[in-house]
Amino acid sequence: MGSEMSTPRPIGELTPPPDITGILCDIDDTLTHHGRLVPEAFMMLAKAQAAGLKVVPITGRPGGWVDQIARMWPVDAVVGENGGLWFWFDGQKLQRRFKQDEKVRQYNRKRLNQLASTILQSVPGTALASDQPYRDLDLAIDFCDDVPPLDENAIAKIVQCFDAAGATSKVSSIHVNGWFGDFDKLSGFKALLRDKWDMDFRPENWVFFGDSANDEPMFEAFEHAVGVANVARFLPMLRYPPNWITIAEGGMGFVEGMKAFFPQLSVD
Q: What is the DSSP letter of 194?
């Protein structure tokens, strides 16, 4: 498990552990770099799946994205909206599961729409995330994806607005995501384990890769937790940082970490 207030160790010091079932990974700034998917990272997902590893992206991105990724990427399932939903393609049909039923989602959407107006008025320079129309459970406030980057004070003020409304919020590398309800990336993954594989949660059998504050529940839960190099900007705000850190940023950091854990995998 992640260590409270510890310093991540260089991934080069890792001795590959046995009995790894699969890999879990954030997407933005973990598989991507400067907003673009790194081809070598995508190829590494395919290599891992072909080698028999379970591959599960766990992201703050919306249900609309999760639908496409679950259908078309070399993955076994996807957890989206910070644990609020989990989808997988069973070969014939996309299986869709949600933390909240449709009635609750509709009620919370009205509350989130009202909160969105408050945040946009209170924090100049913010905008709704461009993928907001495809979201089922949460509200994503953009602070650097499609708007000029805002400073830490602005990000903190966005979080304060969510807190004042009684919403949960998490800071990613590009958005502040907020929602009404009790879920996070870890609880979403545990639900996926039960629903798809009827498996118990055994964190020692999984490797997780992430890059930002919304990955902290995963960093805390998994001994084999890796932060790509750009996680460094978030370390001061993490009570539970990852145990390992790469030299490279984004998708190439993911490739670096995968090679450390799985030397048998290579990208041509």
A: I
Q: Give just the sign of the alpha carbon dihedral 43, 193, 204, 171.
A: positive
Pairing of strands 175-179, 139-142: antiparallel
Q: Quick check: 179 and 112 in contact, CB under 8 A?
A: yes
State pLDDT tens for residues 11-38: 999 999 999 999 999 999 999 999 999 9
Q: Are 169 and 183 in contact (CB under 8 A)?
A: no
Q: What is the dihedral of CA 222, 89, 137, 145, to 10 degrees?
A: 70
Contact 128, 115 (CB under 8 A): no
First-to-last C-alpha distance (Å) of the chain = 33
Q: Which helix (H) or strand (E) holds 111?
A: helix 102-122
pLDDT tens digits, one per residue of 141-173: 999 999 999 999 999 999 999 999 999 999 998
Cβ-based burial of 151 (10 A; exposed 0-12, middle 13-18, buried ≥19): exposed
Whole-angstrom Cα distance, residue 41 to residue 253?
9
